[in-house]
Each structure stands twice: as structure tokens, then as C-alpha cells.
Amino acid sequence: MEEKKPAISRRRNTLTAVLFLLFLAAGVLLIGASTLKDGFLRKELSTLRQDLSAIPIFLENGAEAAVNQDLDRSHIFIQLFGGVQRLSGRRVVEDISGGYNVARLSNGTLNFVTLAQQQEDYAGNARKMATLQQSFAEVGIPSVFVLAPQKIQQNTNPLPVGVHNTANEGADEFLDILQQQGTDSIDLRPLYETGGKYASYFFRTDHHWTPEAAFMAWGYLAPTLAQKYQLNTVSAFTAPGYWEKTVKKDFFLGSQGKRVGTFYAGLDDITIFTPKFDTDFTYTCPAYEIDRSGTFEQSVCLPERIQKRDLFGENPYAYYAGGDYPLATIINHKNPDGAKIVLIRESFACALTPFLALSCSELITIDLRYFEADLMQTIQDIQPDLAMTLYNVGSCASEAMFAFD
Amino acid sequence: MLFSSSVFLFLFLPFALIVYYVLLARRRSAQNLFLLLASLLFYAWGEPWFVLVMVLSILANYGFGLWVHHAAYAKQNIRLPCIAAVLANIGLLFVFKYLTFVLDIVNHLGAHFMVPVIELPIGISFFTFQALSYVLDVGRGHGQVQRSPLKVGLYVAFFPQLIAGPIVKYETVAAQIDNRKETWDDFSAGACRFCIGLGRKVLIANQMAVIADRAFAVPAGELSTAFAWLGSIGYTLQIFYDFSAYSDMAIGLGRMFGFHFLENFNYPYISTSITEFWRRWHISLSTWFRDYVYIPLGGNRVDKRWKLARNLFITWMLTGIWHGANWTFILWGFFYFVLLAAEKFIPMRKTPPLWCKWLFTMLMVNFGWVLFRANHLRHALQYLGAMFGLHTCGLWDERAVFYLLENIPVLFAALLFAAPVAPWLRDKIAAAKPRLLLDIAYAAAVLLIMVVSASYIIKGTYNPFIYFNF
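^ inputs. structure came back:
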């Protein structure tokens, strides 16, 4: 827009135009280099060559998404984007899909938030959970629902003005209904709420609890399960002294951090727990052709996840148990007389699973988001000593987590 | 294809520049043909089938141009080919844009026509008006007839202004199709303009869009007065930055290829009257309607006041309808007819202070944008009601606070640069010394805007373009 004829410097425009052309050229080179190395655009184009019906998707979004990924292989742009958001004082970085808005809490850590009001059916899910537990009881399988904490503590509001998280209240309602229906549940939240260190049990750039928090949960669950269900663990194993802890400093950028870069909220350390006692496991997951045997740190933990520091490409949290698998089995060869537990789980269970496996002879994990077989039949076939469901507070409203049919 | 997309910035544009300036250097016919093909690709990227509609429009108007030219050459009346061209173009626009709306109205009146589902080709109003301008300008003798349909195609479909304007009148660029001269001065000025436009679009318009879209999506009764005002101001800023930034990029790209388009915006939000606002807002559309509708109707030079009112009424109703097939646009056009008629016919006994005039103008413009943005008339009335405290959830709510706090720096920048602060700064800098350092600082700042904008694009943030729908 021109208000009046300006005295424009030719040199100024020349400098700008040269920088502009260099910037375009850099973009072309980045895309070109990525394409030569089997980049995303190349993959899209090879898909097109095989299937011309994919052209509309390619034109609508496929090409743009592929070019964006090729351009940002080194994640410079996402870092810059996050830095600008931080500088401009943004507390919520909205995601284009609306499902992954990242909020910076008042303590500087990150969490996903929803800005639109959503239908959250805690009561409906609780009734489904109770019905499932009653079905287990009918076939003689004890069961328990374990509620893991979420990053936002009860009765606190670290979110920006206008953003709300009512998941704790929803989880309270959920547990009340389980109690009314006479089914077992364990609420882990109080475990973390004393001592004023609540935030330290969660990653800064991720919504998950830390391995320390999961270890603590195991330390609480092991005697509880022993008392309630006579499922004994060698009690010494839960003592911190039996474990070597190695802290990998500034090693982890979580799910929220990956969306906004390190300039927005920094980085996380992650603690690697290694037992000082003998362990021997076999960990299998047919869907992902996983079959690994060996010690705790070689089988139920995946050292390849922490081999190198790759903030955007790797997920060191998945060092523990590998990730979210539809069905996986861990056999603890050192505890053949231990309990056989089925764990219906979500990602919070990743950090707990390797520890819990020490309490079992066999631990079978099922993630309902990916599991497609008949749940009840599968569990009846397994005949576990206990069917445990472990969800965090935020998962209690999820439809997929309670798709038991 | 969007200008603010990685595919355009890092594939299409570099490819177009290299082919145009390296492979086809100094071969004007080949350059023109390439620009036409590139433009068709640009359009087809988003509208693979509707590109055929545009090609049909180009060929038809090429034919109408020849017909008008032959009629004029043979000293015959050119009215018939001109009317045929108007009917054909408006007919095309009617089918794609207004048919379902009209059938809905007729059905409401008791008829039972089947209402087909018709998708709107992006930018159809822009390229139809531009194509019509070709025929009418040839008829008026304001430009030479083109013997080659490829050149008509290039004029209509040239990618910088194809889908959201500015509406380039044929007389403006007729000579440039064959006789333009590309210079480094033009190229570099165009590149600067493009970068600034990209920044204004991505860093300001898209952020304002979030506020506006959230506010306008709140159901009736749940909107607070403060959020209603924030949303309307957000939309007022969004539509200005969205559209004027697109014009900046279009004008900049045009210059990079040697074309000079006329300005489309001139700081409309500093206007102190509605008449002034429309001299500064979407200048190419106002000029189009002035030259092809208002003046042919007699314009201001009529002997009776009712005729002036009639001319204003027709022009503004058409302006409203041009924007879309919805009662909101018709009422918006009528709203401006009333305001402009009032300015023309109601004499002021005492001139109010300038700030009062500005405030009144901005309030009217803001209310106009609420009409324009609303989904339907009832929505518009509910929203305007909420702005005045009717049927709200209160004077303010947390959403208003949230969106205000989240966007303070962008809102501040948006309000600041809606005034001619940039040219003022530029003039100050031009007078300052040492120039070299300032030139380097300017170039670095523009590069920063470009890189930050690219980071938003690559991250995949909200990126709507309002005027593509027209």
C-alpha cells in the first residue's frame, strides 16, 4: 500500500531481493536434497505414480505436507515458530487440527488443552468399566481399575484464563460410580500430592509422568496388590537402593515440546532405571514382530530409543516398554511363581510396565486403541490372576479407551 | 494454490522465475505462453476441474472481443456483442454462484424446484469481471483487441491476480502483455512487496482470523459483549490484512514479471467518511463498478436527485451481490447505499471534529463487516445485538480475556500498521544516515519477516483466504 511516492533506496530493494532469492533457493535446495535422500515429496510422487486416484489428495494437502516435512528436516522452522510464540507471550499454541493445542502452564511446563467445549462422558465410561469388571468377576477373574494422575493437579488451575481442565472432577465422578457399582479401584493421585513436588513427577514438555513417578506408583501398587489380591513381589525390588539411576540431561523433547520446539519451554531430562539384581525377561508383540529376551534393560526396556539424542525423531519415554502395542506379553523367567496379570493400558503404562513385570510371572498388556480382537474372550483365554486397567485422569473421558465390546 | 504455501514459495515460484528469466529470456511469446500455462497449473492445483470453466470463459470472451472489434471496425452498433458478452459472463456467474440461492428463494415462495448442489469455482467473480473488462474495454476503445486467445488467457488467468484480484482492467495492462519491460528495479521492488504482503497475511491476518472465527462461532446467548466487540474488531482487521496482503503479494509478483497493476488499498481505516473509505478499500472493484456500471448509468452527472439515488442503489446492490449469494451481502450493499446516500444528500450544518468523523466511519465499517461475516441475517442481528449487550452471557467473559491476552502484540501491530506508519517510517529512514546500515537493517528485517512467515506456514497454522470465496 502506498500513501505517497516514497524515496525508496535502490540498494535497499536490491539487498532485500537478493536475500529473498537466496531464501527461495535455500528452500529449493532443502527440498531437492531431501528428495534425493528418499524424502517425503519423493514418497508422495512415487505413490502417485502407482495410483493416480491419489491425485486429489496430493493436490489438496499431500504435496504441501510432504514439502513442509522435507523443508523442516532439521526442525529449524519449528524451533523458530516456538521461539516467536514465546516472545509474543502466547500461552496457547493452537494446532491446525484443533486436537493438539499446546498450553504453557503457569509453572512453565506444557500440556495439551482443548479450547472448544467437548462432550465428556465420564459417567458412561465408568459404567462401562464397572460392567467389564463385573463380567470379569462372573468368570472368577479379580480386577481393579487404577487411576494414574494427570499433569494438572486437583484443585489447582495453572492454565491460562479462559482455558479449563475438568478431568480431575470427571475422574472423581468416575471413581464414585465404580465404588457405587462395587468394583475395585485404586486412586494414585494422593500419592503425588503431598510434599509439594507434584510438578516434578511429570515431564516439562510432555504430558506423561516421569519414570520416577511410575517407579513410585509401582512401589505403592506392589504391596497393595499383595495385600488385596495376594500377588507377591520381592519387596526389596521396590526399594530405590536396588536400582541404579542414570539421568540423561536435556535428552527428551515430549509430545507437546515437539510441536513448539525447545525455545518455547525447554527440554527434559530422563532417568534410566537399571536394576542392580538379576533379571531375565522375554518380551513379545506379534503385531510389531517384537521378540526380545534378556535383562531388564535389554528386553522390557529398549536401549535403541536412547542410543542417540534425537529430540524430534525419537521418543526416549518409550525406552520403557517400547510404546503402545495392541497386545504384548512379558514373561519374567526369574519369577515363575509370580502372578499372571493382564494390564489394559494406555501410554502412561509404558513407564510402569517394566517395573510391574517384576511383580509377575507373566504380564500381558492390551491397548484398546489398537486391539481389535474380542477383549473378554482374550482375557478368559489367558485366565490371569488379575485384570488391571491403568488409565490416567485424562483418559477417563476417552471413547476409544472404553471400547470394550 | 495459496501464495502462503510451501508448494508455491519453494517450488512453483522458483520454477516460474527460472523458466521465465533463464530458459525463456527475451522470448516474449514463449514467456507469455509459459506464464499462461503456469497460471492454469496454479489454478488447477486447487480446482482441477473448474480450470475448464475458466478456459471456456477465456475462449468465449476472446470470441466476444473479436466480435466487438469487428462490429466497431465495420461501424456497426457494438451494443449487441457487448450485451451478449455481459449476458454470457453474468450467466456463468449466475449459474455457479447465484442459481441455488435464487431457487431457494423461489421455493420459499411456494415453488418446488429441485435445488442442485453447485460448487463455487474459486475466484470466479474475479476472473469473470476481468474477462468482461476485456470485452468492454475493447468496445470502448480503451485497449487493442487480441488476435491470440493465449494473450486473452494470460490477461484473465495471470496467476498473481487470478483468484483474489486486484481486478485488473484490460486498459491497464493491454500494452504490457506484449511490451512490458522487466527491470531489476521492478523485480526487487516486487520482491520487497511480496515479502511484506506474505508477512501481513501470515503473521497478522491469520492470527486475527482465529479471534474472529472463534467469536462468530459462539452460539447466540453465549457470547459476551466484550468478546463480540473483540471478534468484530478481529474480523475488521483480518479482512483488511487478508485481502490487502493478497493484493500486496499480487502486485509484487506482477512487478517481478514486469507487470504493473494499480493499487488496491490505501489505508482505508484512516478514512473519515464512508465515501473516503470506498476510495481507499478494494479500489479495483470500486473502480470496476464505477466505470462499467455507475458512470454508464449517468453517475453523479444526472439532472434529478432520484436518478443519482437510483444509480447509487443499483451500484451498491450489485456490489453486495457480487460478494456472494446471501442476504447478508445484499443487506451489506444496501447498508452502504444508505450511508453513501446520506453523505451525499444530508448536508451537515456543522462539521464534526475529525476524530468524531473517523470514529463514526469505523463504527459503520465495523458493523458492516459483522453483516458481511455472519452466516445469515439472524446470526448478524444476534451478533450485533450482543455487541450492544442484548442476549449475551454478560459484559465480558473468560474467552474475551483469553483471546485478548493471547493476541495483544499482534493486535497492537495490526492496529498500528493499519495506519500509514510504514511509509512514515520509510520516509524517516530515507532521510536518515548512515543509509547503508539502514538499508541492511531493512533487508534483514524483511528477511526475518519472510523466514518467520515460512515457519508459520511450515508448522501448518490456520491459513484461510477470505476473498477466494468471491
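Chain A has two domains: 16-73, 122-402. The longest strand of chain A covers residues 243-252.
thumbs up if we can close this ticket
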